[in-house]
Amino acid sequence: MMASMLDLNSLKGCLNSALAVRVNLNPISNPLLGRMDFETVDILFRSRQTLLQILEAKGYNVTPYLRFGPFEIETMASGTKEVSLRMDLERSIEKEGAPSKCRVEYAIPRVKNRLSGFLNKLLETDSGEPAIDPLTTEVIVITLEAIGDSFTAAALNLWNKQKLRISFFDANTIVSNPLNHVLVPKHEFFPESKHAEFLKANYIKSKYTLPVIKFHDDMIGRILGLVPGDIVKITRPSPQAGEYILYRICNV
């Protein structure tokens, strides 16, 4: 019995050593990875899976990026670690009021202190020409730090100036899909073509009198890609009526 336990412990030790060598996670032996450890790899892996689920639900073709495992994080040891995880997706079916393409960028581990330079490099070519068409493409940036006011301000500034839809996410907050949480009701984007009819039917003079869902601050609104002026339909369970529907306007 004791011999079996020793053999099992030896096997575990060998596997752990092999995995550490395989993914080069030792911050001392691999300074390019900084302080990345197994937990960080797990967060990046799980958050990427969640993001692919979200994007697939929004109509994007995620098939080219489904073959992604923990070992792929090894590519981040190269000088192009952020580029190696980039994703460019297109919608399988066009959706009203939504971009047809999505660019997913990684800013690892942190980007707050270099946000301006990061966005300039992302949105402009070396010749100063636009690198992303705001009319056809939305941008998602994944990082490993809390998303605070500076990120919301940057997203709002780009929307106001260029009409670019950009959302920032801390990978730690999307290791599981917030849309699937038992306490989160069903949220649906309400097409702009239905706004006028909806307002008239409910005797509402302006859609801006609806309750507000905060632009970029609200996690669900950010996942849906809402921008100021968008309306979201929320369906909540009701013990009396079965379900209760309400509408919110995205605003700052």
Give an overview in words.
The protein is of the alpha/beta class and 252 residues long. The protein folds into two domains: 31-176, RNA polymerase, Rpb5, N-terminal domain (Dna-directed Rna Polymerases I, Ii, And Iii 27 Kd Polypeptide, Chain: A, domain 1), CATH 3.40.1340; 179-251, Alpha-Beta Complex (Eukaryotic RPB6 RNA polymerase subunit). The protein has seven helices and eight strands. The protein has a four-stranded mixed beta sheet. Strands 5-7-8-6 form a four-stranded mixed beta sheet. Strand 7 (231-238) and strand 8 form a beta hairpin. The longest helix has 22 residues, at 2-23. It is globular, with a radius of gyration of 22 Å. The N and C termini lie far apart (65 Å).
Low-confidence parts, pLDDT < 50 over ≥5 residues? 1-8, 11-35
Shape category: globular
Number of folding domains?
A: 2
Task: Report the strand count.
Answer: 8
Give structural attributes:
252 residues, alpha/beta, Dna-directed Rna Polymerases I, Ii, And Iii 27 Kd Polypeptide, Chain: A, domain 1, Eukaryotic RPB6 RNA polymerase subunit, four-stranded mixed beta sheet, 7 helices, 8 strands, 33% helix
Short description:
The protein is an alpha/beta fold. 33% of the residues lie in helices and 20% in strands.
SSE map:
Layout (H helix, E strand, L loop, with lengths): L1 H22 L14 H20 L23 H4 L2 E4 L10 E7 L7 H9 L13 E7 L5 H14 L2 E6 L15 E5 L4 H7 L10 E3 L4 H6 L6 E8 L3 E10 L1
Parallel strand pairs: 2-3, 3-4, 6-8
Antiparallel strand pairs: 1-2, 5-7, 7-8
